[in-house]
Amino acid sequence: MAAEIICSRWTALVLRELLCGTTRFNDLRRGVPLMSPTLLSKRLKELAEAGIIVVTPTDQRGVVEYKLTEAGEDLRGIIMSLGIWGQRWVESSLSLKNLDPALLMWDMRRNLVVSMFPDRRCTVEFTYSELSNRRKSWWLLIESGKVDLCVVDPGYEVDLYVRSPLRNMTAVWMGISTLKAEVEAGNIALTGDKALARSMHKWLGLSPLASEKSRLAGSRATA
After folding, report:
1. pTM for the whole structure
2. Radius of gyration for the chain, computed over Cα atoms and rounded to the nearest angstrom
3. Domains of the chain in sequence order
4. Residue 100 — very low, low, confident or very high, per pLDDT cuts 50/70/90?
5. What number of helices (H) and strands (E) belong to the chain?
6. How far apart are CA 76 and CA 60, in angstroms?
7. Burial readout 140-154 (b: 16 or more C-beta within 10 A, e: otherwise)
8. From CA 34, how far away is CA 28, in angstroms rounded?
């Protein structure tokens, strides 16, 4: 019965989003963009029926939030273990063939270390020049302790410009490479606020599993 609940298609990814703090339907869709809205609704209904989430109305008419129950929170170890297994055994070259800038930026936004930014509005523009115009530029807007991801120019002065092929930035996010190595190799270019550029390795939102990839690389190097 547990396998029927957790192992159905897309459910593990939906649970990952919920465990990362996502509570709204549209935000869940951004975290699992290839999943149809109809199937997402179906999976959320199944998780609610299984007692893994609760559906709570908000103050906004018709808007609800999906929150994990104690049973849902208890799945954290299982979902994280699945990710750790993937970092160990799924070839990095295969992962880097299936790139999605929306997923990358969404996770970077979620894991950004806001405390590393100045106490003012900051805008960081990421450009992946090899992509089409619609998917080429992304903006992270940091203000009042919050981070917004913008797919159109928010109209504010940009503090830091980040230019990179999508593959190289994804490799940094996954822990396959480092920001320092990619900058020194000329793959990633940082222009603008020098303090933000120097501290980017500290505030950049990496995958929660990046440390596992770095640990594995270190253990192989010393073997």
Report:
1. 0.78
2. 19
3. 2-89 (1.10.10.10), 99-211 (3.30.1050.10)
4. confident
5. 14, 7
6. 29
7. bbbeeeebebbeeee
8. 11
